[in-house]
Amino acid sequence: MLRRYRVELAWAAFAAVNFAAMPFAGEWETIPFHFVWVSLTIVYGFRVWRSWPTASALSAVVLISGIALVAMSGRGQVSAAELTEVPLMGSMFVAMVWHARRRQGALEELRRATERERDFVRDASHELRTPITIARGHAELIRAAATDEQTAADAEIVVEELDRLDRAAERLLLLAAVEHPSFLHRSLIDVDALVVETERRWRANAPRNWQVQTAAGGSVPADGERLSYALDALIENAVKFTKDGGSISIRARRSGDVAVIEVRDDGLGVAPEQARRVFERFAREGSVRGTGLGLPIVKAIAEAHGGSITLEPAAGGGAAFSLRLPGLRPATSQRQLGLVLEPA
Length: 344
Fold this sequence. Notes:
With about 350 residues, this protein is an alpha+beta fold. It has helices at about 5-20, 30-45, 50-75, 85-145, 150-175, 190-205, 225-240, 270-275, 295-305, and strands at about 185-190, 210-215, 220, 245-255, 260-265, 310-315, 320-325, 330, 340-344. It has nine helices and nine strands. It has a five-stranded mixed sheet, with helices on one face. It has a four-stranded antiparallel sheet with strand order 8-3-1-9. The protein is elongated, with a radius of gyration of 31 Å.
């Protein structure tokens, strides 16, 4: 209990010392008086007590300081005009309390609005996935049973659009879950192995000039599934902006105790005016189709791990994304196999 209120107890002790010093301060008698009021304002700014503790603290300071100044006035130590400082300082503190409580109320309303938005996104995404799955199943049946090319082509378009909706719903669910305490399930992830495995999967699906460098030489405490999702989103972005035969390089390296995964491409690049917005939700570059959620998800996953994601123009054109993950642990002498090594 005492630990919980250590700030208040420390302030009470500080105020008591200053009140006790007032009769002995001579012509500087108002200095301890002002110390008490200033310290009370500072402490309240951090704590924003409820109504009754605030009223109790204010009443105690007004009463004690008033009594002290009246007594000192009777001994000729202070003038009658200085007694007006007590109600003036009290009024200033009340005004500060009003503003602080207004700000606290606004922040609380913002928090509730954010929670409502997150709940809506999560619920809407859940509700969308079932009808999307059913509609896709029927569209696939129509495509399979089509007897003419036009019907088959139309059904194929429907399936593709439903797939896009399904990916959007999945990404919205992921963004809604970012701030949940159970968003990450950490284990030690071999950074080099993750890069190699990811490139192997993408090489088979995208005809690009793939280049891989692995020099991290260690593992990070991370959620392997989330981290793999983030790396996939970066590579998906690079594939979208490069043509067949274009170059995409993935490099893992160490920077102190930080693992850095870089994804570079020689594609269209990102205009300077767009570079600041690529990590915003629903921001899309040019005419490239997509949900605009891939890079914001990468940013959310990086920050959930205590890391960051940055974008820079790549030498010779294109873009270079750098995903930084703290807590890199050097590889042990025993050979590390697989992506997941052990619980973090």
